Amino acid sequence: MPTRKQESLFRQTLARLIVLPGGLILLATALLAALVFNLMGVVEWGQQSYQILSKTRACEKLMVDMETGLRGYLLNKDAIYLAPYQEALPKVRPALEELQAAVKDRPDQVRRIQVIRAEAEEWMRLGERRIQHLPTLVNKEESLAGKRMMDTIRRHFAEFVQVEEALRQQRVQNVGMMKERLFYGGGSIAVILTLLMTFYITTELRHLVGDYKTALMEAHLRNIELAEQKEWFRITLSSIGDAVIVTDHLGQITFMNPEAQRMTGWQNEEALSKPLKSIFRIINENTRVIVDDPVERVLRENKVVGLANHTVLIAKNGVEWPIEDSAAPIHDHYQRITGVVLVFHDASALRQAHRTLQEYSKDLAAQVEERTGSLRRAMEEMEAFSYTVSHDLRSPLRAMQGYAQALLEDYSAKLDESGVLYLNRINSAAQRLDKLIQDLLAYTRLSRDRDELISVNLDSLMREMLSQYPQFQPPRATVTVTGTLLPVFAREATLTQVLSNLLDNAIKFVAPGVQPRVEISTEEINGRIRIKVRDNGIGIAPEDRERIFKIFEQVHNPKLYGGTGIGLAIVKRAVENLGGNIGLESELGNGSLFWVDLRKG
């Protein structure tokens, strides 16, 4: 069988044998057609010269008829002799106009006709006067003038005819030359074309015969190679551990390897040419329902198919084999299905392992669920404990703070400078500890907040916050809201805490002597709303951008800026509790931009 490459070469050779000669024939036809069209044009020019000469003679005859009629009438004074004149008079002008139109593309002949027409008009006017004055004596001078005019007209006609006759002779010669060109040119083209086509076709046929012989030899070698490959595949398929059954396009068995023979209980010679379903009987392990023939599915759907789980093969002797298999179509080089290959193997051990794994998975799931419940209870107890401890710590702390403040107010005059300093430190430490406890309470409270998210009017919320909190107003800070802030899905209390903490940080962390300026805006990004808080503060180093969101982390001097190290941890946990994300952009000394992404409200 020739390969696709050889078939392509044969087609190309045959195409050249048809296309190139056909192209040469078309070219020769075009050249001959051009010669014929040229000859027809020359012949047409010759016929035009004949027509012009014929029209010229007709015009001359009309003038002669007019002259003859006028002379007869003048000599005999009888109106019957005037008939030729009167008959030619209305025809001569249109005839001369038609003659001029026929030579309009030749200016020299047009000028001659115009002269003739002018002379004819003058002669006809003289003739009309002579006819009108006939009763009087004939004027000899007028007769001589009329004769001279007519002689001039005849001479001009003769010149016109002479030029036209010379042109006609030249065109006749051109016709002869074109005929010779057509004869010799067409004959030469035919001879050259015949020689070229004969040489080309002979050469291509030699190539075609050579290619055909080469293709036959290659096909013979390929058949030998295919036979060797077929034997190699047979040995290979017989050697592999999986069972293999091969069928033709009708689903009849053509090959079974030893493993397939062992599992089905059929020998290869017994199974050959039998339908697969009579040898390969499969049922569902659980329902005992017969499973569809996989080969029929492959032939119907033209794709690789696999058996469902829990498939069992029933051997010839009744032994049942749990199996896993797949079937794939075999295509020829035209992508037509020529058969199906079915590969399967004993899945007994795998099924047992799967059952064991399922049992283990059930036990593991129960243990995970139990431990998850224990962990959840422990976390709830820990949160409750943290809340209780934080809450109970505030009572003695408030007492410490109250007594320290009372001593400062009532006994500061009796204390020395060191005593007042110590009391102020106690008061400040109590305030910081109270703030720390409040932040811990807020942080713990966030983990228990599971209220449903609602659409929050962020613009109204922010403007209300700015109007109610003095620390966000001049002269302490300048906070600007850019545009109308877009609504978001959130819990209003949680969102208020997020915005308050971000604004507190923006106002707090500025260089000494710098007026805090904060800009708040929103934008929509991929269906979510990004809240942006930009400040003119001291900025954050790149290596500290992850640390600042961790609890009790402070990247700036706490003695200079204060704080508990929990504020941004609260913000991060609150944003995540709202189903959002938080991030920042910052450079040391150039301020910071904190952003929060939430669902669009």
Summarize the entry for a quick read.
By secondary structure, the protein is α+β, with helices and mostly antiparallel strands. 63% of the residues lie in helices and 14% in strands.
List the helices and strands and how they pair.
Layout: H1 4-76, H2 83-102, H3 107-132, H4 140-239, E1 243-248, E2 253-256, H5 258-264, H6 268-271, H7 276-279, E3 281-284, H8 294-301, E4 305-306, E5 311-314, E6 320-331, E7 337-346, H9 348-411, H10 417-447, E8 454-456, H11 458-468, E9 478-481, E10 488-490, H12 492-508, E11 517-525, E12 528-535, H13 558-561, H14 567-577, E13 581-586, E14 592-599
Q: What features would you describe in this structure?
A:
The protein has 601 residues and is an alpha+beta fold. It has four domains: 4-210; 241-346, Beta-Lactamase, CATH 3.30.450; 352-448, Signal transduction histidine kinase, dimerisation/phosphotransfer (DHp) domain (Helix Hairpins, Orthogonal Bundle); 451-599, Heat Shock Protein 90 (2-Layer Sandwich), CATH 3.30.565. The protein contains 14 helices and 14 strands. The chain has helices at 4-76, 83-102, 107-132, 140-239, 258-264, 268-271, 276-279, 294-301, 348-411, 417-447, 458-468, 492-508, 558-561, 567-577, and strands spanning 243-248, 253-256, 281-284, 305-306, 311-314, 320-331, 337-346, 454-456, 478-481, 488-490, 517-525, 528-535, 581-586, 592-599. The strands form three sheets. Strands 1, 2, 3, 4, 5, 6 and 7 form a seven-stranded antiparallel β-sheet that branches. The protein has a five-stranded mixed β-sheet with strand order 9-11-12-14-13, covered by helices on one side. The protein has a two-stranded antiparallel ribbon with strand order 8-10. A hairpin with a 5-residue loop joins strand 13 and strand 14 (592-599). Helix 1 (4-76) packs antiparallel against helix 4, helix 2 packs antiparallel against helix 3 (107-132) and helix 3 (107-132) packs antiparallel against helix 4. The longest helix has 100 residues, at 140-239.
